[in-house]
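Lab notebook, bench 4. Still working through the backlog of constructs that have no structural model yet. Next entry is a single chain of 275 residues. Request: give me the structure tokens for it.
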Amino acid sequence: MVELGIVDIREIVRLIKKVHNYDFSNFALTSLKYRLEKLIAKNNLLSTESLFHKLSEGQDFFDSFLNDLFVPSTEMLRDPSLWRWLREDYFQKLPSKKLDNFKIWIPHCISGAELYSMCILLKEINLLKKVRIIASSYSQKSIDYIKSGKYPLKKLEVSIENYKRFNGEYSFNNYYEIINNEAIRDRSLISNVEFIKDDITFNKAPGNVKLILFRNVMIYYNPSEKNKILERLSNTMSASGHLIIGTKETINLSNTPDISFELINDNESIYKRSF
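Model written out:
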């Protein structure tokens, strides 16, 4: 396996910036190193020079590169307590008049696990056709995969258990079928979802968003970039909008003087935008 040094990583980042205008210079070095090495191994590349050449070839490889660079969350209804909170506390307490133009944004879609989970929740509380869901991804390959409905068979068991702990209304079997020894999720769940191919700085972010799911993504960024991303997310949110990050992640509010967030659920890492 090719092992990258700091100079190698900086050269890769420089090349990506020059050829594709994506700036990874503020990504956490340790995480980026690990992901790049895994990506090199997956593509059977024998050296950093081979990666340089592939990245310079064109958009097709770079799109696959973006898809493979980030760790997908393939477990549906991960952290069932969060989904119960959304059902029983968040949506249950929303006045019906506030559902007009209600936007949910999932900015970091790779496998579609969060998206399909959200759609299952909304379907079971009869809101799926009443709210607007926007899912964005850095890679068209990721979007195509999500739209196909494909889902790893090995992840079904844990997802079924998560659904039971979520106390779902039906059986999880309602939301997928097995075709040719492959799990296919119910694609009707995402029929009204708006997909956006965005870049890593979310330049195509929607506005006036009520709820953002951005779980387990902060680990990719260094502290400076985290603050920039948080500012970007904050600027897309409506008054009193909510941001959900990973349970192991936190927002250091003392380091974000220009961003007003209030922690409202420590266990689930849920923040409310405040003024």
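Notes after review: The chain has two domains: 6-69, 80-273. The longest strand covers residues 237-244. Flag for follow-up if needed.
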